[in-house]
């Protein structure tokens, strides 16, 4: 049995969001093909993800200096413990499905906060004499990204910083099996429905091999 983190980063629902509509169809197809797997839905707009603020940085600094967890302030303890729980859950999973829109050429801020929370030395990567090494080899990831224009190829490709960012982060973690499903061109209202349906049709194929 595998554990899948279904990570969504859109404040609306599948009826209003292209990325969530496709993501919903994918995860349903995946569950049908893999009934014994555990799927955990993490809605980034409902999860508490501490920012890397003064409490977090000071708390980590105190722990590195040799102080015990009990010697941290209440705020430091709360945020540091929550961040550790987030990354531990991430490391324990086998597969990751990210679902997000492209906003301002990149991912929503809540998803960036989540990648910050999972980018922890000693958890998802480690430093060595030869440079950083990812610790999550053997795991799989899929990113479903919706955008109004086409950014995966063509004249706007250089502006795409959503999937390209996650691709770099996850490969830094050691995850080499990484796939993208782009739901692109949805700003063309006369074609948006067909674009969504084409992506949804593709989800069943991806789900079988994922």
UniProtKB/TrEMBL annotation:
EC code: 1.6.5.-, 1.7.1.17
Annotated keywords: Flavoprotein, FMN, NAD, Oxidoreductase
Name of encoding gene: azoR
Catalysed reaction, written as an equation: 2 a quinone + NADH + H(+) = 2 a 1,4-benzosemiquinone + NAD(+); N,N-dimethyl-1,4-phenylenediamine + anthranilate + 2 NAD(+) = 2-(4-dimethylaminophenyl)diazenylbenzoate + 2 NADH + 2 H(+)
Function: Quinone reductase that provides resistance to thiol-specific stress caused by electrophilic quinones. Also exhibits azoreductase activity. Catalyzes the reductive cleavage of the azo bond in aromatic azo compounds to the corresponding amines.
Subunit and partners: Homodimer.
Entry similarity comment: Belongs to the azoreductase type 1 family.
Top-rank taxon, per record: Bacteria
Cofactor(s) annotated in UniProt: FMN
Span of domain Flavodoxin-like fold: 3-202
Enzyme class: oxidoreductase
Record: residues binding FMN: 17-19, 102-105
Transmembrane segments: none
InterPro entries: Flavodoxin_fold, Flavoprotein-like_sf, FMN-dep_NADH:Q_OxRdtase_AzoR1, NADH:quinone_OxRdtase_FMN_depd
Gene3D superfamilies: 3.40.50.360
Record note on cofactor: Binds 1 FMN per subunit.
MF GO annotations: electron transfer activity; FMN binding; oxidoreductase activity, acting on NAD(P)H as acceptor; oxidoreductase activity, acting on NAD(P)H, quinone or similar compound as acceptor
A Pfam family it matches: Flavodoxin_2
Organism expressing this protein natively: Paenibacillus whitsoniae
UniProt name for this protein: FMN dependent NADH:quinone oxidoreductase
